[in-house]
Amino acid sequence: MLTLTAEIRNNKGKSVSRRLRMHNKCPGIVYGINKNSILLTLDHNSLFNLQKKSEFYNENILLLINNQEYIVKVHLIQRHSFKLKLLHIDFIYV
């Protein structure tokens, strides 16, 4: 099982996401039915390297957020149109 480390972010919006991307971070969210959504900040380089593996899209991922473990799957990834950058990632609870 692949493991990702993330931090909770409190602010949302276009300007906050742009500032995160300038500091080599990637905004994201975890959501699911009857569960609270969690806004995330992930390290772009580790996420980019991990998404090159085929297991990233097919298997469950262990997401560590403030020493709590969540089992999630990738739901949606937004990529830059011509740069090799990830803009946003959505996870769903398993």
UniProtKB/TrEMBL annotation:
One of its GO terms (biological process) is translation. Residues 4-91 form the Large ribosomal subunit protein bL25 L25 domain. Keywords: Ribonucleoprotein, Ribosomal protein, RNA-binding, rRNA-binding. InterPro entries: Rbsml_bL25/Gln-tRNA_synth_N, Ribosomal_bL25/Gln-tRNA_synth, Ribosomal_bL25_short, Ribosomal_L25_dom, Ribosomal_uL5_bac-type. SUPFAM superfamilies: Ribosomal protein L25-like. Coiled coil: none annotated. GO terms for molecular function: 5S rRNA binding; structural constituent of ribosome. It comes from the Bacteria. The keyword RNA-binding applies. GO terms for cellular component: cytosolic large ribosomal subunit. This is one of the proteins that binds to the 5S RNA in the ribosome where it forms part of the central protuberance. Belongs to the bacterial ribosomal protein bL25 family. Part of the 50S ribosomal subunit; part of the 5S rRNA/L5/L18/L25 subcomplex. Contacts the 5S rRNA. Binds to the 5S rRNA independently of L5 and L18. NCBIfam families: PRK05943.1 (NF004612). This is Large ribosomal subunit protein bL25. The lineage of its organism: Bacteria, Pseudomonadati, Pseudomonadota, Gammaproteobacteria, Enterobacterales.
